[in-house]
Structures are given as C-alpha cells and as structure tokens.
Amino acid sequence: MTATAAPPRSPAGTTSPVRRPRAPYRWSARGFALPAVLIVALLLYLPFVWTSYLSLTEYNGLGDPELVGLAKYQEMLTDAGFLNSLRNTLFWVVGTLVLPVGLGLLIAVLAYGLKGSFWYRLPFLLPYAISGVAVGVIWTFVLQTGGALDEALGVLGVTDPPRWLLDAPLNTLVMIAAATWQGAGVNALLFTIGLQSIPKEPLEAARLDGASGWTMFRTMTWPMLTPLTTVVVGLSIVGSLKQFDIIWAMTKGGPGVSSETLALTMYKDTFVENDYGLGAAVAVFLTVITVAASVLYLRRQLSGARES
Q1: 259/165 Cα distance (integer angstroms)
Q2: How far is CA 8 from CA 2, 16, 53, in A?
Q3: Which of 36, 62, 71, 105 has the most beta carbons within 10 angstroms of its beta carbon?
C-alpha cells in the first residue's frame, strides 16, 4: 500500500487561510442575484431617486421641472396643513399599535387551547379579506350623520349623537377603529401561530412551580412571543405610516384637512393641486421617517435579543 501524504499543518498558534471561492463560482452567484437587484433598482430605487429630484423642483406635470433647491421642503415644513397631517399620522401609529395589535394578542391568548378555537377567531379574520376601500364604505354607512349608528342611538334615546366623521380628532379615532376591525383578526392569527410554536416543556415546568394566569403570560408566554411580536409591530408601524385607502373612502381627509395623514397630503399636493414638487417633498419625508422608524425599531429589538 502506498502511504497517503498528510495535508500540511499550520504552525502552532496560526490559523489556516480561508480559501475564497474561485472566480467562476463568484460570478455565477452574482449572475443569479442580478435579476433581483435589477428589479429592486427599477421598481424601488430609481423611482425614489426621481422623486427626490422632483422635490427640488417647481413642476406641475407639464413642461420641464425647474430647480428651486430646498424651497419645497421649506414650504412643506411651514404649512399648517402638513403639521396637522403629521399629528394625525402619529395618532395612526399609536392607535394601530395599541388597538389592532393589542386586540389581536388578546383574541389569540383567550382562544388558544379552547376546543374549536378556529371558530372563535374566524369572525375577526373575515374583515381582513375585504379591501380597505370597502371597509371605508361600510363604516361610512355606519358612522355618517343620520347613519346606522345614529339611528341605533336614537332608539336608545340619544337625540344629539357625536358627529363621528365631522369633528377632529374624533374622525381620526373612529377611522382607527375601522382599521382595527379589519386588522385585528390577522394579528390574532399570527399570534396564534406564535403560541403554537412555543415549547410545552417550559410552560409545564412553570405550572408545576405554581405559575398561572397573568404571571404565566408575563414571565413565560410573552417573552417567547417576542420574535413574532417584533414582526407584527414592525408591519403595523409601516402600515400606519402609509395609511390611505380607509381614510380616502371615509373622509377624503376632511372636513378641510382635519383628518389628513401624510399619505393623503402627498396625494392631494401631487394629483389634486398639481404641485408635483411639494408632493414629492412630502413623499421623500414620508419615506425617510418610515425607513428610519423601521430600522430603529428592528435594531433595538435585535440588539435586545442578542443581549438576552
């Protein structure tokens, strides 16, 4: 038999150099990634670059854009309507975190483990199959002056009900309630999936130690739901910052601009007022705060997960 030569060993205290993939393999990997990179560039990055350029111009959709520097951003930040839209957008962020996410978690926890729990969650999940515009139409029928809710309150003796869609900030709050009706069910479904993925052994050990009810949820169940909660909350933040369809269907941002959000302000400035520069400035601002909020939230959650 011929002896097989042993591979050379590295000197003591040194590590063997890591072999890099050969050039053909590196280029093959880049080739596979190239279509995805091109699609993202064409559908995301290039439109954002063009919008950023328009935000520096005076442009009404006709002719050539005229560069005006940061004038549109200055106009945006000094506009009282923009500040009102920013305030309403913050209401949406807080409201959709507290109501759809909180209610979804409550439904999932209360229904989990019950016989036939699917049928308890189904009524909350069905509205998610309805479009945002349809949700707005349904809730407008209920909440408009002289609508279904006012008629029901009249039967109960309430002769002067609130003007649900006409008075601010009440109109924003009832639209958040409409969004909650649509979104709580899917959040409950996601949290149910998270509950089903929790190992049973730690929970059984905690029960043997006497934990139950709120103590069990606070010390065991909730920490184990953290990864899924990060996803649900992140999606809720992004969705609330871009909320458009329900608001447009119910109030179109009115009366006046009392219920406008940044997404509606962007739309109206661009396509109603034909001020493409100002609309682009609002779009860039909205994009920046959406990305910043998402990145800051995810970095905080992921850093907390590493520390634990």
Answers
A1: 9
A2: 18, 10, 59
A3: 105
Q: 0.70 exceeded by the pTM? A: yes
Mean pLDDT of the chain: 86
pLDDT digits (tens, 9 = 90+) for 69-93: 999 999 999 998 999 999 999 999 9
Mapping DSSP onto H, E and C, the string for 88-105 reads HHHHHHHHHHHHHHHHHH
Separation between Cα atoms, residue 163 and residue 171, nearest integer Å: 8
Domains and CATH numbers, the chain: 45-78+275-308 (no CATH), 82-269 (1.10.3720.10)
Task: Kindly give the pairing relationship between strand 66-67 and strand 57-58.
Answer: antiparallel
Q: For helices 80-96 and 226-241, what crossing angle results, to 10°?
A: 150
In Å, what is the CA distance from 167 to each residue of 81, 163, 181, 256?
A: 16, 6, 21, 11
Q: Is the pLDDT of residue 278 over 80?
A: yes
190 near 228, Cβ under 8 Å?
yes
Q: Among residues 84, 105, 62, which one has the least CA distance to residue 226?
A: 105
Amino acid type, 36: A
